[in-house]
Specification:
By secondary structure, the chain is α/β, with parallel strands linked by helices. It is built from 10 helices and 10 strands. It is 41% helix and 15% strand. Strands 1, 2, 3, 8, 9 and 10 form a 6-stranded parallel sheet that branches.
């Protein structure tokens, strides 16, 4: 059965200040957008994952701090994950600095909702440099973004997250060898990359931004398989004109929920996908021993 995991990056004003393109967003954009998304999700009985900047979970003045809304998301049985403490760009960080950033966020969110945080969603979907996965990002390594030379890769980030007690992380990278082979017609389309275990943490690849026609086409393409597909958006764009808006999500869920009700697909949180991934690995080991 096809599984779909939807996640949202709740940046908060801390994230807007660190972002390349969102510094002019209204301070309450994530808060108001989340209220709209929660209604859409409730109407369709779909549970998702919200990756939230840890600073928003601390006590303080709205809109930098939104403890009540974070608790509301949790009480609605959506998953809360970390989106770092302050939404800083991770690639240039030193190991100790990264550990402090991810550990502080985990602690702040856990204290806010009185529950364990297992997941991590990297700001900017970076790092994307991952030699072990055949992915090379020279812009990160050499600091072409203007934010400093890259010290972190997907692999080193996952290692640090394991040390901080996380169980899964969303990742975003592209295998350059596959890209080159496809460009020259050596290979054709392959199945979307599936969750895998690295450094004892589940890495869940990101497949699609937004909820428009491309998302619908992706789901339809792989319906009938046992693949996992991951879609994501931003609460602060729930009212925007792009494919991440709440109307696009509503239309997509209206299309897919009848298929779910027929038992042909399932919506899962990212943590549920991580648990299933670890379970599959255990079953594979058992089969090897038989």
């Amino acid at each position: 059965m096809l599984r779909i995991a939807i996640s949202f990056d709740y940046d908060s004003p801390a994230g807007y200040r660190e972002s390349f393109h969102m510094r002019d967003f209204p301070a309450n954009a994530d808060y108001e957008g989340t209220n709209i998304l929660l209604k859409v999700l409730r109407d369709h009985d779909v549970k998702v994952t919200f990756g939230i900047v840890g600073q928003a979970a601390l006590p303080g003045k709205q809109w930098d701090h939104c403890q009540e809304q974070i608790r509301e998301i949790h009480q609605a049985r959506h998953e809360i994950a970390s989106h770092s403490m302050t939404h800083r760009y991770l690639p240039p960080m030193r190991d100790a600095e990264l550990l402090e950033e991810v550990a502080a966020s985990k602690c702040a969110l856990e204290e806010c909702i009185s529950s364990s945080i297992q997941g991590f969603i990297p700001p900017f979907n970076r790092p994307s440099h991952f030699i072990e996965g055949g992915a090379f990002s020279f812009s990160e390594v050499f600091g072409f973004s203007g934010r400093g030379r890259g010290r972190q890769s997907v692999g080193t980030m996952l290692r640090t997250l394991t040390a901080a007690g996380y169980g899964w992380s969303r990742v975003s990278f592209e295998n350059k060898y596959y890209q080159i082979a496809r460009r020259f017609g050596v290979v054709t389309e392959r199945a979307p990359m599936q969750p895998f275990i690295f450094k004892n943490i589940v890495a869940i690849p990101l497949h699609q931004t937004g909820f428009g026609n491309d998302a619908s086409t992706l789901v339809r393409r792989w319906l009938g398989t046992d693949h996992v597909l991951t879609l994501y958006g931003h609460p602060n764009q729930a009212l925007s004109a792009n494919g991440q808006n709440a109307n696009e999500l509503d239309r997509l869920l209206s299309e897919l929920c009848p298929i779910r009700d027929e038992g042909k697909l399932e919506f899962n949180t990212m943590d549920e996908i991580a648990v299933l991934t670890r379970g599959d690995r255990i079953e594979q080991k058992r089969e090897m021993l038989v």
